[in-house]
Amino acid sequence: MTIGPYNLVFGVRQRLSRWTGPNSAVVLLVTAAFGVLLFMVLAGAMVYGNTRQLIASAESVGHTQEVLNSLQRFSVLSERIDYRSRLYLLTGNEEQLLRARASTNQLDNLLVHLSELVSDNPVQVDSVKGLTACSVDIHKIIDGFTSKSAPPEDPVARCQQVVGLMSDREQRLLQERTKGSARSSLLSVGTEVGFVTISGAMMVVLFGLLLRDALSRQRIGTETRIANEQLARSVSALEDRALESELLTAARDELQLCVDVQQVYQSAANSCSRLLTGTGGALCIINNSRQLVEVVSMWRESAVVDFHLAESCCSLRSGQPRWRKPGVSEIHCTHFSGDSPERYLCVPIVANGNTLGLLYIECLTAAAEESVIQSMDGVRQLVQLTGMAIATLNLRTKLENQSIRDSLTGLFNRHFMEISLEREIARAARNNRMLAVFMLDLDHFKTFNDTYGHAAGDAVLSAVAEIFRNSIRTEDIACRYGGEEFTIMLPDVTPKVAYERAERVRQAVESLRVPLERDVYGELTVSIGLAIYPHDGEAGDQLLRRADQALYRAKRSGRNRVEQYEDATLQLSATQRQV
Predict the structure, then answer these.
(1) Residue 577 pLDDT
(2) Number of structural domains found in the chain
(3) Which DSSP symbol is given to 552?
(4) pLDDT digit string (tens) for 493-523?
(5) How do residues 291-309 score in pLDDT, each as one tens digit?
């Protein structure tokens, strides 16, 4: 069948009439309705997809952040276990061991949570198995931990290594997901801009949809911005905690290297300066009399702290850390020489149950005050580390003094004298100098002791030792050789000067009066033998023998006198020649 020209023209006219005839508005309306419907379906589908993608991106970022937080918590717990175990070894405090065991239990719960979080990541699942293995090792050590056990340093180090690897992976994953979220946001914005451009031709029909879409996008953008701000704050808080942990670790390591309390004082001040930015302060220590407090180190500018009595600090009186700031406490401490600052914190330093002093922190601004409040855990840990370091060094000094000092007289003991004599002889030989050695013996001391009793004898020995300390230089060494015998070493002196100093000691003992209860004991004398290096001997034992021979000569010559070995030898030779 063929189509003629008439039929072709009629068909074209019929189609055109559908768009130009009386029903053309209905056709256009239906077409527009279908177009709007199709546009709405397409727009809704794409907006829904973009929204789901953005939400999924935010959830993935949050999931990664939760993994990082859990890893950080695991790292802190493992370090706390190592720290508590070491603290238990140092102090013997059972509470520290209980806390360490509680932390190991928390490790188990955290491992379960970590396993659930990384179950979709095979690489991290294997790493969690490594954490589980070192956690089991820590459990074994801590469960059977005693005062003779070694700290769980190796398993903790392994845990820290695994945590570091896992954190690196999660950080990379966080960066990737953050970039993906940004790309999704960019794609979403681009798509929506395109739809806005297209909807310009359909303004009237699609105005309501565009308005709703704009409001929806605004809400999603606000939620995204809030989520990003929260994420930024979380990352910043983690960075602050990591920096604080790093500073505390460095402070602990530096305190362990200190060999005297002065180094501890300066190290603690430096650590406070790094940890508490925007603050000034001082480290104040109670002196040996337990009456006065002394400022031993400071950092940055702060109010002048001028202690007189420990009671001038409210914190020392209460035994607790104390803030003084507007709206919290209006009562000032009285340990300032000028005007009191507005904001400051006093933290007592306590170790082994004894209050050693306090850490004074002055906040120069409100921001510095907020920073100190956020770093209070670090401040407490630093104060504990400083207190333990000071107590340890004080105990070490006390033990060293007990090992080299005579308990009655406070002079060095014989063992220290022998060591010092060899050292001083070597130094004199190296510098081509002389060294004088006194051997001193209290005359008739046994008779005195038998007559007046041991209490009087001990009082006399202590008084004589005090004369020795007051009669010699700082570099001279006075020792109790044994019983009523003493030894004094005088580096870098001439024979004449050594003899004059020996004579001065003899006269001081001769004029000594020792009060004891209601009695006063006097008429005490001392005989002194003097030998000079290198004239009278080049070895320590030889020099002591020569000084002892000179002492024996002084005893035979009537006591209460000074005899020099060389003079005694010359006198003996002259006597032999006369014979």
Answers:
(1) 39
(2) 3
(3) H
(4) 999 999 999 999 989 888 888 887 777 777 7
(5) 788 888 888 776 666 666 7
Domain membership flag for residue 40: yes
pLDDT at 166 over 80: yes
**Range from 209-218, 327-336, 560-569 carrying the lowest mean pLDDT:** 209-218
Q: What is the pLDDT of residues 73-83, one digit of tens each?
A: 888 888 888 88
3-state secondary structure of 197: helix
How far apart, in whole angstroms, are the C-alpha atoms of residue 529 and residue 562? 6
Q: Classify residue 106 as exposed, middle or buried by CB count within 10 Å of its CB (0-12, 13-18, 19+).
A: middle
d(CA 121, CA 109): 19
The one-letter code for the residue type at 96 is: Q
Spatial separation of the C-alpha atoms in residues 538 and 532, rounded to whole Å:
9
**CA 425 and chain centroid, separation:** 42
Using the 3D structure, point to which of 354, 375, 398 is the last residue of a domain. 398
**Beta carbons within 10 angstroms of residue 187's beta carbon:** 14
Q: Are 294 and 268 in contact (CB under 8 A)?
A: no
Q: Which two tokens stand for residue 305?
A: 């702290």
Measured over the CA atoms of residue 60, residue 63, residue 67 and residue 69, the dihedral's sign is positive
Give domain status of residue 18, yes or no.
no
Is residue 272 classed as helix, strand or coil in its secondary structure? helix
Q: Which of 176, 484, 517, 566 is catalytic?
A: 484
The verdict on residue 394 lying in a domain is yes
Which domain covers residue 381, as residue numbers? 260-398
One domain for residues 183 and 292 = no
Average of per-residue pLDDT values in the chain: 80
User: Taking CA 433 as the corner, what is the angle to CA 431 and CA 436, rounded to the nearest 5 degrees?
Assistant: 140
Does the structure show a pLDDT above 80 at 457? yes
Q: Report the distance separating Cα 377 and Cα 85, nearest Å.
A: 19
Question: Considering the domain boundaries, does residue 135 fall inside one?
Answer: yes
Q: What is the domain-level CATH number for residue 120?
A: 1.20.1330
* C-alpha–C-alpha distance, residues 434 and 417, integer Å: 17
The DSSP secondary-structure symbol of 405 reads: B
> For residue 448, which of 380, 525, 340 has the smallest C-alpha distance?
525
Dihedral sign (CA 211, 212, 213, 215): positive
Beta-carbon contacts of residue 566 (< 8 Å; ≥ 6 apart): 495, 532, 535, 536
> How many helices and strands, by DSSP H and E, does the chain display?
16, 12
Active site residue 484: yes
